[in-house]
Design brief:
Layout (H helix, E strand, L loop, with lengths): L6 E9 L15 E2 L2 E2 H9 L3 E8 L3 H5 L4 E3 L9 H9 L6 E6 L9 H12 L3 E6 L2 E10 L3 H9 L5 H5 L4 E5 L13 H10 L6
Helix pairs in contact: 3-5
Amino acid sequence: MAANDLAPVTGIVLAGGLARRFRGEDKGLIELAGRPLAGWVADGLRGRVAEIVVSANRNLPGYARLGHTVVPDRLPDYPGPLAGLLSAAATAQQEWLLTVPCDAPFLPLNLVSHLLEHARAATVPLARAADETGTHYAIMLAHHDLMDDLRDYVDEGGRRVQAWQQRHACETVYFGDDAYAFLNVNTPEDLRTAERVAHRYPR
C-alpha cells in the first residue's frame, strides 16, 4: 500500500504502565513467540496507519529498537493511558489518533479501518472497540481536535478513560469474529495462553 493510501491515523502503542502483575517487568518488552509484545502490536498496525508512536516511560532504547518514535509521559508517576495519548499527540502528524495497549498482541487487522469508518459515518470524534467480553475503552480512535479538551481533563486530575469519553459523542464498534482478538496479557497465565495460540496470528 502506498504511503498516501494509509489511513490518516497515528497509531499509539501504550507501553507506559507498571505491569505490577508481572512483578514490575516492562510488559511491552516481554517476549511472545520470540518478539516483544509491543512489537506484535506495532506490527499489526504497520501498513494500516500513516504513523506509529510508542508511549513508554522505561527502557526507552529497547522500545526504540522497534523502529518507531518513542514518547514518554509529560506527567510523572505513570498517570495512565490518557496521559500517554496526550503526550503522543504532541508529536503526532495525523488527523486521528488510535490508542492500543502493548499487551494486546492479536488485535483485529481491520481495527483501524473499522473504527475510522464508523466514526466518519456517525460524524463523531471518538470510536472505541468492543466484543462479547465488553467495551475496551483504551482501544479508541480520537480526533486530534479533542486534544485540547483532553489536556484540560488530565491537567485537572482526570485519569479515567471512560469518564473522558463520556464528555464526547462516541461510537462503540463491535468486533465479534475472534475470541482472542482482544486478549490482554496481564498475567503470566495470560502469556502462556498467548503462546499457545500465537501461531494463528502472523504479523
